[in-house]
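Chain A, query sequence.
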Amino acid sequence: MVKRFNVRVYGLLIHDNAVLVSDEYIKKNKITKFPGGGLEFGEGTRDCLAREFMEELGLEVEVGEHVYTTDFYVASSFDTNSQVISIYYAVKPLAALNFPVSITAHNYEKKEGAQSFRWISLTSLKESDLTLIIDKRVAEIIIKKTPAHTVN
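Chain A, predicted structure.
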């Protein structure tokens, strides 16, 4: 039983007072998370995030300010021998936003690896909108920084 780290890098793309989220179907689970993915060996975290945005959205981004890095223990939801460390950055698009976006959650054919994107208004964002515990922590940070956030 090999114990290992799983380093993930995610981008917070905010546009028109909304944050982009990714709805995904992973191992028969519906997951809502921020866009991004796994760091590959030999890759820097910023390069990873730029690659992930290009692969998933066809969007070139500028990786900006560091927002958060996991500061508590989290076992992977998919591999209990793996500890997840997630790093979040603000990102800015370097081109027009022309990727497909849905207005409903999980708007895809239910098959492994399926993915769709949607915007969630900053003023209505809730921790419960995200699935993974680390993303919930980051949603909390975004909520605290949003002055006109509505309390539900």
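Residues 45-57 form the longest helix (13 residues). The chain has a mean pLDDT of 93.
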